[in-house]
Amino acid sequence: MATSVSFRNINKIAIPAIIAGIAEPLISLTDIAVIGNVEENSVEALAAAGIVGSFLSAIIWIVAQTKTAISAIVSQHLGANRLHAVKTLIPQAIGFNFLFSLVIYAVTAFFAEAIFSAYNAEGLILQYSENYYQIRALGYPLTLVTFAIFGVFRGLQNTLWAMKCSLTGAVVNVALDYLLVYGVEGYIPAMHLEGAAFASLAAQATMLVMALWFFFKKTPFHFKLSFNINPQMRPLLLMAANLFVRTAALNFAIYLANAYATDYGKNYIAAQSILMNIWLFFSFFIDGYANAGNAIGGRLLGARDYKNLWELSKKISLYAVLIALILMGICAIFYEQIGLLFNKEATVLALFSSVFWIVLLMQPVNAIAFMFDGIFKGLGEAKYLRNVLLAATFLGFTPTLLISDYFGLKLHAIWMAFFVWMLIRSSALVIQFRRKYLDKEV
After folding, report:
1. What is the pTM for the complete model shown?
2. Are 211 and 165 a contacting pair, CB within 8 Å?
3. Which residues on adjacent β-strands are paired with residue 188?
4. pLDDT tens track for 337-371
5. Quick check: 38 and 183 in contact, CB under 8 A?
6. Which among 74, 79, 191, 266 is least surrounded, fewest beta carbons within 10 Å?
7. CA-to-CA distance for 50 and 276, rounded, in angstroms?
8. In angstroms, rounded to a whole number, what is the distance separating the alpha carbons of residues 372 and 289?
9. Is 341 exposed, middle or buried (0-12, 13-18, 19+ CB in 10 A)?
10. Which keywords has UniProt assigned to this entry (predicted)?
């Protein structure tokens, strides 16, 4: 019989997770590509979409950490054959996500102008950012409930359902982007940036409806809310809280990068928006194997199968690095053409091309960091992940950015800082995993 860490079993989880994972950044990339090619105020609109996209990602990554916590707890209980113990936990966790999303929406929508002013946006860019965000923010409850359900699917070792939901949402987004941004003469008025926001909202609603169908038809769980708090709710929230802090530090780095780029000028933040969204696209692509590490790692820990846990770490790291090298090769071949997909402004393209090589060079390092991120999340090691991210952000990324910026390196400073950031993350996780689990695998 195939082992739990065979190529087939890993890829059964990883490949659908890759496809599901890239659907979310694909929505943002589609928005940027379509908006960046609108003739009227394209640079300002592109900058606004990039700033808002970064902020949305920051918020969603922070508050959606319950997805990872749910996945870890479900997978560990699956490995221990104790799924019955978390049946009341699932509706409680999903309900928590929904209520939290309403609070996030109310607070951020009210302070939208102040938030995007903090990104150094002003004038037309600030106006576009506010308008775009007010619509996109309506999707918080849709996205966070969907993510919680996706966490259940992953914990059950199934990423195929999430893939189907995400792919359908991406198709809806792409189709509506073209219809609503450019309009159809005589039928649909051109809505430009606001059209892209409505397209994203429709995509999120589509994904939620499909996720609910799979949840009720395919899983052993339900939405019946018990007022007796499940004993696993406290560990779940504690794990999520550590991951909140970790993700807040992660997004502080992204915020700082975008704030500096905006301060350099509109062409810099436009180029940075393209670079950041491509980096996120690559990250979600590679993260499919991290999802496999999360799901399988949690199950192996629940079964106390340390030998296969060690094998898992080696195999998914190898697969992820190979994926990273393939992405690097493709982008190296089409180096100049990639920028043209997003904008035609010569200055923006020149800035993009001058820095894109750094984004490509760091991909194998990213792959190792993301793999062990996923495994550690599945093992419930949220506290260590929190500490690593805090150290990488405040002792690595921030000093590198400040020093490099002092020497006038601008976009190069930002991406050199990200490279240092990822080197610290990957090395710290590899060292800790070897220290903690190498002896147990025998």
Report:
1. 0.75
2. yes
3. 184
4. 888 877 778 888 899 999 999 999 999 999 999 99
5. no
6. 191
7. 8
8. 10
9. middle
10. Antiport, Cell membrane, Ion transport, Membrane, Transmembrane, Transmembrane helix, Transport
